[in-house]
Amino acid sequence: MAIRALAAAFITSLLPAFGATAQFGSLSYEVIALPSGAMGDPAHPTDVGGIGGASLHIANLIPKNGKEDPRRRLTQAEISMASGVGFFHGPPGLADFVGTGFVAISRRVVVTAAHNFAQNGAWKSYVRGPDGELNARGARFYSDACDRSYSISTIEVSSLSPNEDRSNDVGLVTLDEPVCSQAQPLIVLALSDDNLQRMFEFAKVEMRSYMLVPAWQREARGQPRVAKLIDEGMFTSYADGETKKTVRFTASILPGASGGPVVGKFSRRHPGTDVAVAVVVSEPLEGGANTARVIDGELAAKIELLARENP
């Protein structure tokens, strides 16, 4: 059987796993740009000078390596799919941008990259208390769909040194309260080694994207402005040898995207069947590759358990 037929059969076989199609409301959307040094009440971003309603024209992004930047605004269907994608920031306000996260299964559970909170064996300063222990209140999760930030109850990371092993670069966050109904949680889908291998083969033969990466990220490398951008891509190979928990993927992303979802583009007609299959854990240096932590059975089970405990 041809690779194309195998890929089609594989994608079709995934659909019953997520059950009924989720219902999404009609969302208005405007990309928000964060000016350098913006301050204000993090719970009310419209109070922060220069942020509320600021429009960013993606066509004007600075070209990368002399090429047109393929990142773009979300289409209406993609807006619904990515409504649960937000970002973490510190106490000073929205301009204290840290990185991306996405609401998963429950409106109180956010999945992200551990290095947004920890590095070199310790918690980062904005979530580190005087004794060096975790201070989850130092971070907040901003949802543009809800137009506000949410305080954090707990942060669990796989490792305090996630940069040393990207397979441990996962963070699970519990919010004090559920995000609003406009921010729809993403379904998560565990991918087996066989499924991933078939995706690699599909990418080699078809050379067509089958994933979307919606994330808050830098407008351009080294610049302070961030925006909610999206790009398409595909898995290409494993990134970590025998453990097979991290994969390389193609997409045009910049710093800030870490913690964002890699969403399987299994059905463009029904946004409710789009599912998170991996978590972005590193953006490339010039000429490098993106890396994502696969949502395998173990990680999916952790997310589902946390969602049941925090509905």
- Low-pLDDT stretches are 1-60
Morphology call: globular
In the CATH hierarchy, the architecture of the largest domain is Beta Barrel
Q: Strands of the largest sheet, in order across it? A: 1-2-3-8-7-6
Order of helices and strands: HHEEEEEEEEEHEEEEEEH
Radius of gyration: 18 Å
Helix content: 10-25%
Strand content: 25-35%
Number of domains: 2
> Got a strand count?
15
Overall pLDDT confidence: 77
Which fold name is given in CATH as the topology of the largest domain? Thrombin, subunit H
Measure the end-to-end span. Answer: 44 Å
With helices defined by DSSP (H or I, 4 residues minimum), what is the helix count? Answer: 4
Biggest sheet, open or closed, and with what strands and sense?
A: 6 strands, antiparallel, barrel
Structural class per helix/strand content? Answer: alpha+beta
- Fourth CATH level, the homologous superfamily of the largest domain: Trypsin-like serine proteases
Instruction: Determine and state the CATH class of the largest domain.
Output: Mainly Beta
